[in-house]
Design a protein that fits this description.
161 residues, alpha/beta, Rossmann fold, 5-stranded parallel beta sheet, two-stranded antiparallel sheet, 6 helices, 7 strands, 17% strand
């Protein structure tokens, strides 16, 4: 079991905050990935239909995609390999995906994140400094444009707050 097998999102967040990584293991933006390295995308989304749609669109863009529906599962994935892009739903059964993504960004800067959610407009506005925000329900082209904006931006564009 990975480091996030805890009782709640707050425990998972506390565990994530205590984790560190060496600079050599930080994921590089898609444009900087080596030719032999497969581009990885992680999708944290609790709605299986939306997760499948997002995964299909990311595969069209050349990513190998792993989906998960809980923050603890994302923690397990991050312990194995870092993604080149991260798609995060905000309202999840075990916590706030935006808060977790911010913690991830503080731990591993440079990983582009796209936020997809039906959260309130004020919550989505709070997340805009961390990466493109796509409100549900979303248009496929809007989601694709958000992914491209996230991965094509300089790695320091989407800084933590």
């Amino acid at each position: 079991m990975g480091p996030f097998r805890h009782c709640c999102g707050r425990c998972a967040a506390a565990t994530l905050e205590s984790m560190t990584t060496s600079p050599s293991s930080v994921a590089q933006p898609a444009a900087q990935a080596s030719a032999e390295e497969s581009l990885r995308a992680y999708v944290l989304e609790d709605d299986p239909d939306i997760a499948a749609l997002e995964a299909d669109l990311l595969r069209e863009l050349g990513y190998s995609v792993v989906t998960c529906s809980r923050i603890v599962e994302l923690g397990d994935l991050m312990a194995v390999a870092l993604p080149h892009v991260l798609v995060v739903d905000v309202m999840l059964p075990d916590g706030d995906g935006g808060d977790i993504a911010e913690l991830l960004r503080n731990t591993w800067p440079g990983i582009p994140a796209i936020f997809v959610s039906a959260a309130s407009r004020s919550r989505l506005t709070e997340l805009e400094p961390l990466g493109p925000v796509v409100a549900k329900p979303f248009d496929i082209d809007e989601f694709r444009d958000a992914v491209l904006a996230a991965i094509e931006a300089p790695s320091d564009r989407w800084a933590s707050r």
